[in-house]
Write a structure and sequence with these properties.
mainly alpha
Length: 64
């Protein structure tokens, strides 16, 4: 009786796998872009932030 109640499960083929993967990736991308657009007014950075970050990265690499 247990064998009769088993649900047939078929693995996804390659096209279905790609469809699900890219659909999920697009939904995540749209969500991130929406959050970025929604909260952009709350982001404040100094003009030297980027320069100091790259300077830190370069100096840190040389210290190794």
């Amino acid at each position: 009786m247990i064998e009769d109640q088993k649900i047939a499960f078929k693995e996804f083929n390659r096209k279905q796998h790609y469809f699900v993967f890219y659909s999920f990736a697009i939904l995540v991308d749209l969500t991130v872009l929406n959050l970025f657009d929604q909260y952009w007014d709350n982001v404040h950075t100094s003009k030297t932030c980027k320069a100091s970050f790259w300077t830190y990265c370069i100096c840190y690499d040389f210290k190794r």
